[in-house]
């Protein structure tokens, strides 16, 4: 039997605030609600650092350039967007890099829970979704990407990834089609 989890990645206020598609969060809410109604566990993945970012080298172009208080416990932008906030019992996985696996206990949680199918959503398609998909595929997880549950600031990059790259390692579908398949 397949045990599925929905990964909602980097839906933090400081990241979602840069999303240019006003329909993105409402679509993602449909995915989260559909998963909850079907009994599919929702795992929230966030990027997070200790104060001063001792985990982020200045050689890292992405994280080394962040202000020292960004995505720390005291940063309001690090909070998960209210519309998809975790419910009691839903796990929040903190990662230290782009991939949901890097610097986190995600693999331990997935293996311990017997999960073998991951449904991926998040911001950005070319960031957390791509990195997590590649690592999860190498770890032999069955994968589904909700194309309209992912967002990238570059629409062409999003299109190429969801139409040409991701299908090599994952099923790619829409939120509506995925939630209908859960019924």
What labels describe this entry?
single chain; 183 residues; alpha/beta; Rossmann fold; six-stranded parallel sheet; 33% helix; 20% strand; globular; hydrolase; Isochorismatase-like_dom; hydrolase activity; Isochorismatase-like_hydrls; Nicotinamidase-related amidase
Written description of the protein model:
A 6-stranded parallel sheet has the order 3-2-1-4-5-6, with helices on both faces. It is built from 6 helices and 6 strands; from the N terminus they run βααββαβαβαβα. It has one domain (4-182): 3-Layer(aba) Sandwich (Rossmann fold), CATH 3.40.50.850. The chain is globular and about 45 Å long. The two termini are 17 Å apart. Strand 5, helix 5 and strand 6 form a beta-alpha-beta unit. The protein is an alpha/beta fold. One of its GO terms (molecular function) is hydrolase activity. InterPro entries: Isochorismatase-like_dom, Isochorismatase-like_hydrls, Isochorismatase-like_sf. Keywords: Hydrolase.
Helical content band = 25-40%
Number of helices: 6
What name does the CATH topology carry? Rossmann fold
Percent strand = 15-25%
The whole-angstrom Rg is 15 Å
The assigned structural class equals alpha/beta
Lateral strand order in the biggest sheet: 3-2-1-4-5-6
CATH superfamily: Isochorismatase-like
Mean pLDDT: 96
Cα end-to-end separation: 17 Å
SSE order in H/E notation?
EHHEEHEHEHEH
CATH top level is: Alpha Beta
Shape: globular
Number of strands: 6
- The number of distinct structural domains comes to 1
Poorly predicted tracts of residues: none
CATH-level-2 architecture: 3-Layer(aba) Sandwich
Question: How is the main sheet built?
Answer: 6 strands, parallel
Pfam family, one: Isochorismatase
Protein name: Nicotinamidase-related amidase
GO molecular function, one term: hydrolase activity
InterPro entries: Isochorismatase-like_dom, Isochorismatase-like_hydrls, Isochorismatase-like_sf
């Amino acid at each position: 039997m397949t045990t599925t989890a929905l990964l909602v990645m980097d839906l933090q206020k400081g990241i979602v605030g840069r999303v240019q598609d006003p329909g993105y969060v409402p679509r993602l809410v449909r995915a989260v609600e559909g998963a909850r109604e079907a009994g599919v566990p929702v795992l929230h993945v966030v990027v997070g650092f200790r104060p001063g970012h001792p985990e982020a080298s200045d050689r890292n172009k992405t994280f080394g350039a962040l202000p020292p208080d960004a995505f720390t416990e005291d940063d309001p932008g690090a909070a998960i967007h209210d519309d998809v906030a975790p419910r009691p019992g839903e796990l929040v996985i903190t990662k230290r890099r782009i991939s949901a696996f890097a610097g986190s206990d995600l693999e331990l949680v997935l293996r311990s829970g017997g999960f073998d199918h991951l449904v991926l959503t998040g911001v950005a398609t070319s960031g957390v979704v791509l990195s997590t998909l590649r690592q999860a595929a190498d770890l032999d997880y069955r994968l589904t990407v909700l194309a309209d549950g992912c967002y990238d600031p570059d629409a062409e990059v999003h299109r190429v990834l969801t139409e040409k790259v991701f299908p090599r390692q994952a099923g790619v579908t829409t939120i509506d089609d995925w939630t209908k398949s859960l019924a």
